[in-house]
Amino acid sequence: MRRSITPTLLAAIVSSIVGYQSSANATIWHNYKNESKCMGVGAGNMTPGTGLYLWDCDGYSDQTWNFSSFVNGGDFSQMWTSGASAPTGLPSDTSSRCAALGNAGSTSDNQQLCIWNCSAATLDQGWYKVLIGPDAAGHSCYYIMNEKAWNNGWGIRKVIAVKNGNMSNGAQIVLKTYDSSALDQLWCEY
Prior knowledge:
Layout: H1 7-18, E1 27-31, E2 34-41, E3 52-56, E4 64-69, E5 77-81, E6 98-101, H2 102-105, E7 111-116, E8 126-134, E9 140-146, H3 147-152, E10 158-162, E11 173-177, E12 187-189
Antiparallel strand pairs: 1-2, 1-4, 1-12, 2-3, 4-5, 5-8, 6-7, 7-11, 8-9, 9-12, 10-11
């Protein structure tokens, strides 16, 4: 019996070879303070534990993010990079990469974010987008809150920010206590 490659299988093969996988709802997060700067994985390196950094927006897969609901439900979602596979929800998933808290999931202010194997069992990979409003061009802008910090702090909003509000290439992407006057804590969907 002759087998043929379906278009879906071919797309999956090409995605794995090229190292780019995206969904129809993929987002490039531009920082509101300077919308020419984006959140991405350090040097595009998909090794677990690699830090997240601010860089000129280039549209590469390490700057392209997707949200997937946790398998067990809830309001928070996993935020995974298109530079790796989509999360499967399985405990043995070692091919996907989600935004996570570094340093064993520390919720301290200025804790650098990193990528890690996506796991539906860890709250430090849970993120919730809170709409603030549009930027001047009409893009929706949010602060992105962490689930583990929310649960550990009895409702304290800790969000994705740029360390010290520094808009230079290579600035660390960190977790910070929400401050409505800190523009570096707002991220716009492109």
